[in-house]
Amino acid sequence: MYKFRIKIFLGVIALVFLGLLGRLLQLQVVSGDQYLRNLGGLLNRGQRLESNRGRILDRNGKILAMDEPCYDLCLSYRFLTADPRWTRKQVASIARAEGLSPEQAQAVFERRSANTWEVARRLAEQGGQDLDEVADSVIERVRAVRQDVIDRRARLGLTPVESVAEEDQVHPVATGLESPAGLDLNDTVGILVRPSFRRLYPYKDAACHIIGRTAQVSLDDMRSRNLDESADAMEAIRVNYRPGDQIGQGGVERMCEGLLRGRHGYRLERRRGGETVEQTPPEGGQDIHLTLDIKLQEELMKVWKAQTTPGSTGAIVILSVPTGDVLAMVSMPTYDINTYARDYKELVKDEVYLPMLNRAVAGRYPPGSTAKPVTALAAMKTGLFALDTQIHCKGYLFSPDSYRCWIWKHHVGHGPLDVVGAIRYSCNIYFYQAGMRLGLGRLAEWFKRFGYGGKPGTGLPEEIAGYVPTDSRYDGEARLMAIGQGQVTVSPLQVANAMAAIARGGTLLSPVLALEGSPARVREDLGLSRSHIEAIHRGMYEVVNSRDGTGYSVFHEREAQPLEVAVCGKSGTADAAPQRVDSNDDRRITGADTIVREGNMAWFAGFAPRGNPTIAFAVVVDYVDGGGAKNAGPVAREAIRVCRDLGYIH
Amino acid sequence: MLLLLRGYLRYTSWPIILAMVALMGVGVLAIETSGQVDAAQAEHAQKQMAFGAAALGAFVLATLIPYGRIGRMAYGLFALTLPMLLLVFAMPARNGSHRWIPLGFFDVQPSEIAKITYIIMLAWYLRVGDNYRRLGGLVMPFVLTLIPLVLILKEPDLGTSLLLLPTLYIMLFMAGARLRHLLSIVALATVLVALPVPHRLDASMPAVEQLDRRSLTYFTFQAGGQEYLVSAAPLAMMEKHQISRVVGWLHQDDQRVRMGKSYQLYQSKITLAAGGWVGRPANAEPESPDMLPLLLPYLPEDHTDFIFSVIGGKWGLVGCAGVLALYGVIFLFGIEIATVTNDAFGRLLAVGVLALLFSQIVINVGMAIGLLPVTGMTLPLVSYGGSSLLVNGFALGLLVNVGQHRPLTLGRRPFEHGDRRERAIAAESMPGR
């Protein structure tokens, strides 16, 4: 029995061993290739070949932004963090290469390390940056990337990683160097000077808000835009952002980031030996053509400086009526994009004049009387008012204490007015009545049809929708909104676009800023009657050209040269809440905070010429003392002159 | 003296010694390979050589004392092992388990010692009588097994503790326990293990763990706002990392768990695949770089539990088959010893050593090639580690020791021809004649 059983034992051993061998045969030979297929990443290393960013051009092909070849000084992350293992390896390789003892090699390493810091510090300072700050931000970003990878792997139940790729890479600490010549890197360690590109903006501060700028990519952008490397490593090399990469921040640079950036190339090389296995060249970014005329933009900036008191802030928007092209969009004050990185701290500190705010698309203004043509069209379209409806202005609506017309300061009224007269005189009573009869709901609907309360659609990331109240606890809201006061807020671009819609005879077009990368255009016919439009055109023409129009004196000043353009315009003097800064540091703006600026928002908006309009414009000057025509009118007048001189008005 | 040595050498089973030394040599080479890519393991090959020399010493020591005398100390040795198994709990934990007693120059692993004293004790216990041929008589061997098993399980060292069960079974089987008893115990144990046990799902667990636990249940139900899982008894008791190993093993070919739960196993398979037939992948271009140094940094425990994968990666299928063949030599000649020995204790001791060796090989290799879940288990004589090497050397010494005391009249008696031969041998070797 024992001998029989021992044979069974031997048989079991033999069978089990055969089973193991069978499985080994399957693993190692039969399906071995299948396991080795994905080993490319282990054998090869991908290197990125930088692509250059596309240019931004104006409507005449003038270059607004371009990449210029330069050099970046990069330091190894391990060097920046003084990684002990990396240091040991460096010391060992110095010892091997120069045949030194470990102590001597350590001394050499320390000397080189000190020299590296010195070289990097000097070059960073030339670029106006503090090396310590740059180094800290590199370290912080790499650590955050590392933490992201760790968190993601933990969420997926994967084993933690030893290190992430960024920890073994070099990172730029001094960028935009003219030339590497004359740079002595013999006595350095962990340093690399590599060709790169820097962004150049030939027109400096003109259109700075529209062009935007580039900056080092933020963590949030990396998180939301980067592909998962494990899915397609090569594609990830081509499109992913690495810490230190530039990305569009604001303006067209941001809006067209995907087109401008292009795709990096890559070179796949053997980890051992380094020979090239595969290479794909970079695809440069696409050029972006803007509808903007940079010459017009520059001229308008000069106009602003000549026609406003020094330090005035505000915006000018010029749109092409037939196409909806944004021809110019000035926001004052401006800054030089080329030195933005250096000036950033100064710019961000200015809480009063807010130089970084693109007022043309992101300023929140009450439209004031520039909204009156819209109210009039709404009242006539809905049939509440006819062309010949007369409203009697006695200087106030109910009692002299509230809802006054602006003429009441002379303690008189306008008397009976039809729509043309109401526009010409900008009579509040007419429009109070119109607003009251329309009610907030219908009025808000018509405001929205003219583009208020919705993003205009240039695609600029800064663009705001403004606010059109549709419901209010306050009974008089409709009355106030009818004259462009109360809760309603708009941007200058919206005002110019509404004017363009009126100039077209009631067709709303979304404004176009870039020929590439803009959102789809929207064209909407508002179905307005021709006679109503004619009346509004006439009223706005009389504002400028009738002796008792609100804008007449500005456009016909004795010293001003005649314009010889049939301008239709509308002035606006909007009451605005004073601007306060958070002076008591409670992170809220309340009545307790200091007032830094106060006054009216001065508007002048319209289109020209009357018969066959080619341009629509809106001008706003912030916090002025006095009326819209007086403060914004001269800017508009000279802006129209510039447009005429540049051929935009025939 | 000289005569004594001549006798010692003549009756020693040389093939077993040669196979043992060859396996140790393969182990050192494989450890050296894994040390080349990791500076922290650079001296391991050197140390393993020293351990190997010590293991040979243990081997010789085990052959010098007649095994019968060791048998008489069986219970004493076993009794000495138990306090050591308790003592580990007083020692600081490493990687969350109490397995070692540090002696300064060397860390003793009592569970390794327990393996050998357990076999000696069991062989000594089973050598007389035949009460284990009754069901009731099986109680005592099982109790004697459960004592070290539970202690080692508590360390925790699942691999080593589970090792004792197949060893017990093979020894009982060889001692003549009835097959139907053994099979009914297995059946009963299977039923008990598979018994559905409801247990509450801790909602504060990480989501991944909850998912894993859910995937291993029979069914779930809600009661009193709590979710209850109904799963097999051991699964209900398992720790998080054990659960994730089981899931990783069950879904080892699933792309999603490869880089996570079955990371070790996947790396082990890649390393094996890199070996191909003789140490190169099947489709290798002539100049393709040697992949092993690139792969090994990603293979955890490459010098201990996954040494077999390193061997497979370095020498391919041929290398793996060679290692198994060397073990085959030990089994073949070990079974020869177990067959010709007439002494009951000697037979069981030889069988026990072989059973222990066999179980370790199957568990270790099975885990490296994905046939069994990953548990910590060394490949005997090959894996890096002093305790394991010493104990296995000593165990093989005992095996050879048994062989040295084989009955002198093994061969055919002169001039006895034909069918009487068997009878004559039987008559000659009958104990107590």
Model description:
The complex is a heterodimer of chains A (650) and B (433). Chain A is of the alpha+beta class. Helix content of chain A is 40%, strand content 18%. Chain A is elongated. The mean pLDDT of chain A is 88. Chain B has 433 residues and is mainly alpha-helical. In chain B, strands 3-5-4 form a 3-stranded antiparallel β-sheet. In chain B, strands 1-2 form a two-stranded antiparallel ribbon. In chain B, helix 6 runs parallel beside helix 8 and helix 10 crosses helix 12. In chain B, 42% of the residues are buried. At the A-B interface, helix 1 and helix 2 of A face helix 8, helix 14, helix 16 and helix 17 of B.
Question: How are the SSEs placed, and which strands pair?
Answer:
The complex is a heterodimer of chains A (650) and B (433).
Chain A: H1 2-30, H2 32-36, H3 40-43, E1 44-49, E2 56-57, E3 63-76, H4 77-80, H5 84-98, H6 102-126, H7 131-155, E4 170-177, E5 191-200, H8 208-211, E6 213-216, H9 219-225, H10 233-239, E7 246-249, H11 251-255, H12 257-261, E8 265-270, E9 276-280, E10 288-289, H13 294-307, E11 314-320, E12 326-332, H14 340-349, H15 359-362, H16 372-381, E13 391-393, E14 415-417, H17 419-425, H18 428-449, H19 477-482, H20 492-503, E15 507-509, E16 523-525, H21 530-545, H22 552-555, E17 568-575, E18 579-580, E19 595-597, E20 600-608, E21 615-624, H23 628-645
Parallel strand pairs in A: 2-10
Antiparallel strand pairs in A: 1-8, 2-3, 3-4, 3-5, 6-7, 8-9, 11-12, 11-21, 13-14, 15-16, 17-20, 18-19, 20-21
Chain B: H1 2-11, H2 14-37, H3 44-64, H4 67-72, H5 74-87, E1 101-102, E2 107-108, H6 110-126, H7 139-153, H8 158-175, H9 179-194, E3 196-200, H10 207-215, E4 219-223, E5 226-232, H11 233-237, H12 240-250, H13 255-258, H14 263-275, H15 292-295, H16 307-340, H17 344-368, H18 386-404, H19 420-429
